């Protein structure tokens, strides 16, 4: 797979990156991802088909499936049935997912944070790995910066390596590629886009956020996640609890302190004070909501400027 720009848009749930955002990134020459987290298999199927229609045959469309959720296998099989261009999986790996992809001729990529896990993914059949550092938004698998981990992973595997976490500018992409990455994955920057599937209140939270507004919270998935401080984040910090009205039993393993899914859905429905608002470490550098095409063209211009200066 070779896109016009070496940019994969991160898969962000719940409901942040669906057909609207993924198709806009694909049309602009990047690689779009639909997040399968927090939607039904029927909704996933709908968004895959819708993204394909909206992308007008340009770019690539993939699906991100969280290994930690109970319907992981169903989501994987739905994506395969719909013949997506590739599948990315995070929060764990299984031998089966690579076998399913191999049988269908669909690349399966793993999100990793260590050379050891990258090497294991390669041996099990991953087509590429996404190296996610501490700067990423959402659930985190490490406390180390991405650019510290990246060269170790590149050394450990022969498959393509994608850099993720804290990538915001063309200069960041130039640095990653110069170090040996095949491309980058960007999530946070695309949230503040006109085509992002999140509500305006969610996007506005990104534009208004400062570095000091960010905090780490431990979710019921068992991992820490970086979120923008609000009333809900303050309630659940330091192992705080929030009563669950109804448990949907969506995770393979859950601490039941609160409902991660419900808190993400509240944000999606516009309540960005009593819901989780995940964001990357550099969200404070974003000050505008722009069209995806403008974002990518700006990043490309920055990349060209940096690489020309280096010659």
TL;DR?
With 311 residues, the protein is α/β, with parallel strands linked by helices. The protein has helices spanning 19-27, 41-54, 72-81, 95-104, 115-124, 146-156, 170-178, 188-191, 200-208, 231-236, 260-268, 292-310; strands spanning 7-9, 31-35, 60-66, 86-90, 108-112, 128-132, 138-139, 161-164, 183-186, 214-218, 224-228. 52% of the residues are buried.
Describe the protein's topology.
Blueprint: E1 7-9, H1 19-27, E2 31-35, H2 41-54, E3 60-66, H3 72-81, E4 86-90, H4 95-104, E5 108-112, H5 115-124, E6 128-132, E7 138-139, H6 146-156, E8 161-164, H7 170-178, E9 183-186, H8 188-191, H9 200-208, E10 214-218, E11 224-228, H10 231-236, H11 260-268, H12 292-310
Parallel strand pairs: 1-9, 2-3, 3-4, 4-5, 5-6, 6-8, 8-9
Antiparallel strand pairs: 7-11, 10-11
Helix pairs in contact: 1-2, 2-3, 3-4, 5-6, 7-12
What does this structure look like?
- This protein has 311 residues and is of the alpha/beta class.
- The chain folds into two domains: 216 residues, TIM Barrel (Alpha-Beta Barrel); 84 residues, no CATH class.
- The protein contains twelve helices and eleven strands.
- The chain has an eight-stranded parallel sheet.
- The protein is globular, with a radius of gyration of 18 Å.
- The two termini are 27 Å apart.
- The mean pLDDT is 92.
| Total of helices | 12
Reported CATH architecture of the largest domain:
Alpha-Beta Barrel
The secondary-structure class comes to alpha/beta
Q: Mean pLDDT, as a whole number?
A: 92
Would you report the number of β strands?
A: 11
Instruction: Tell me the domain tally.
Output: 2
- Per the principal axes of the C-alpha atoms, what is the gross shape? globular
Top CATH class of the largest domain: Alpha Beta
């Amino acid at each position: 797979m070779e896109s016009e720009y070496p940019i994969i848009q991160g898969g962000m749930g719940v409901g942040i990156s669906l057909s609207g955002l993924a198709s806009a990134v694909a049309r602009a020459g990047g690689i779009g991802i639909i997040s399968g987290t927090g939607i039904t298999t029927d909704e996933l199927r709908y968004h895959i088909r819708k993204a394909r229609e909206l992308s007008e045959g340009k770019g690539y469309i993939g699906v991100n499936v969280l290994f930690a959720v109970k319907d992981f296998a169903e989501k994987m099989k739905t994506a395969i049935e719909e013949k997506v261009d590739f599948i990315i999986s995070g929060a764990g790996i299984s031998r089966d997912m690579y076998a399913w992809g191999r049988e269908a001729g669909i690349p399966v990529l793993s999100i990793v944070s260590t050379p050891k896990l990258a090497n294991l993914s390669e041996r099990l059949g991953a087509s590429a790995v996404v190296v996610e550092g501490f700067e990423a938004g959402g659930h985190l698998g490490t406390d180390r910066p991405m650019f510290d981990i990246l060269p170790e992973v590149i050394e450990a595997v022969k498959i393509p390596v994608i850099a993720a976490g804290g990538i915001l500018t063309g200069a960041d992409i130039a640095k990653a590629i110069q170090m040996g990455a095949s491309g980058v994955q960007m999530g946070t920057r695309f949230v503040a886009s006109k085509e992002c599937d999140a509500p305006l209140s969610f996007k506005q939270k990104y534009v208004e956020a400062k570095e000091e507004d960010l905090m780490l919270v431990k979710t019921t998935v068992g991992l820490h996640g970086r979120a923008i401080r609000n009333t809900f984040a303050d309630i659940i910090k330091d192992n705080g609890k929030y009563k669950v009205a109804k448990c949907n039993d969506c995770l393979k393993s859950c601490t039941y302190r609160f409902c991660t899914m419900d808190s993400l859905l509240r944000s999606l429905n516009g309540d960005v004070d009593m819901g989780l608002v995940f964001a990357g470490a550099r969200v404070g550098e974003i000050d505008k909501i722009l069209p995806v095409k403008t974002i990518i063209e700006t990043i490309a211009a920055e990349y060209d400027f940096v690489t020309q200066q280096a010659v």
